[in-house]
């Protein structure tokens, strides 16, 4: 057994459907797994690399370096929109175009050492994105929640900075009209 390999297993009807292996030096460790509601793709989030696989076969569809994330990515119900947060204070949005994903836009919060994007969410319809952060200041810290239009210019539609601590998780209903956040 090579201890430098990370394993992911997919089970269907109580049987192993496929196994995916990733290099630990590239990925570091697993931070989460997200399955599209339509069962088309599965995303494996590593601390330093994101893998998108075909859910049926386990074959790689797309991948990209994550630059230090510690939370699962979020995706739309059909897997066409991906939101990726990072401990560098940046959230990046990707859109599937044919068999690959391309960056739509990114948003940087306060900076690489002063904000962590801890939680991201995408509505099932893919039109609304939420990001939860922990901001570090010289004399205190606090959490913020920002809401974006997926196909906008990357400027938040709304920001709430009244959270006393990190925004640890976000949920958005299917059409993006109801948003929940924990702190």
Describe what you observe in this structure.
The strands form five sheets. Strands 3-4-5-6 form a four-stranded antiparallel sheet, with no helix packed on it. Strands 7-8-9-10 form a four-stranded antiparallel sheet, with no helix packed on it. The chain is an all-beta fold and 183 residues long. The chain is 2% helix and 57% strand.
Shape: globular
Gyration radius, in Å: 16 Å
Helices, by number, come to: 1
How far apart lie the N and C ends?
40 Å
Spans of 5+ residues with little confidence (pLDDT < 50)?
none
The helicity comes to: under 10%
* Topology order in helix (H) and strand (E) letters: EEHEEEEEEEEEEEEEE
Q: In total, how many beta strands?
A: 16
* Order of strands across the main sheet: 3-4-5-6
Mean pLDDT: 93
Summing up helix and strand content along with how strands pair, one would put the structural category as mainly beta
Percent range for β-strand residues: over 45%
Major beta sheet summary: 4 strands, antiparallel
List the helices and strands and how they pair.
Blueprint lengths: L4 E8 L2 E9 H4 L2 E6 L5 E6 L2 E6 L5 E6 L8 E2 L5 E5 L4 E8 L2 E9 L6 E8 L5 E9 L4 E9 L8 E6 L5 E4 L6 E4 L1
Antiparallel strand pairs: 1-2, 3-4, 4-5, 5-6, 7-8, 8-9, 9-10, 11-12, 12-13, 13-14, 15-16
